[in-house]
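ingest -> fold -> write
write: protein_1
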Amino acid sequence: MSEKLPANAVVVESALRSLGATGEIVVLPEKAPTAATAAAQLGCEVGAIANSLIFDADGSPLLVLTSGAHRVDVELIARTAGVERVRRATPEFVREATGQPIGGVAPVGHPAPVRTLVDNWLSKHEVVWAAGGHPHTVFPTTFDELVRMTGGSPVDVE
């Protein structure tokens, strides 16, 4: 399967295997840059999509894995993370921190570990879908597996 995956998805697939993940990367027929487009292609609720949002938290990357049903309250996240300011990262900042493009950022497979917060709302879904390193790729996982694989902290995001 790896030979059919985009290069970034191959890196993510390797990370998933090394972390003992159970899901396989799926290549979608269309890009899935938003939770709504991913959910429509997968036939699931928008809330079961784990959006990978990279923020600039006082100059350091912060990954927030949030339910597609939520908007992130950046002031709440700043307080939760113990930083002065959290703001949306530029595409260049995202690529530097993750090696992946916006719209396809996976929770794993980054050049270096990225501090991660995981939306508690995702625990309401038996299966959660996360990006696979490319806008056309996703993989199924669970809330508990996301927390374990990323070393993330479960939090409320809104």
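write: protein_2
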Amino acid sequence: MGGADKPTLPVGGQSMLTRVLAAVHDADPRIVVGPVPPDLPVPVHSTREQPLGGGPVAATAAGLALVPDDITYTALLAADLPLLTGEAIDVLRLTVESSPMQGAVYRDAEGRRQMLCGVWRTAALRGAVTRLLEERGDLHGASVRELMEFLRVAEVSWRRPGPPPWFDCDTDDDLRTAEEWAR
């Protein structure tokens, strides 16, 4: 995408990051791991993974460091999910609340887990990060799949009309598709 800061790209008149944060409008705190634009319309706490560019697991650890211990559930979301909705988050949260699993993620039509579109029991997610860190020695470059090996996850199918909430924008074509769906 030409080196653009993807989360700041607009879809339907709002940045993708703003749209993701709107899907978790009732979350407190809302934490962004990465740069935060000065014109972001909602308050967030921000942090960065160390070293920078450490990947999604290192970013997860950095974000979890800002989550208070008394928070029961944590939504772990990519910042380029412009079609994510509060309803989609509620489905995941209710799935976790009503099951013995440690988290819930969407499973796409091809059977792939959408691991950066999930809701987790915060303590379990923290424990998995700690175990992976102990196993690897550091989190730099660790894959989300490695992290998921330490978690029991419910897979949820999206059966509602319209675009899937986990649709991410990795290409200009994806951005155009999201813009069409957002109309």
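write: annotation protein_2
The chain has six helices and eight strands.
The longest strand covers residues 113-121.
pipeline exit 0
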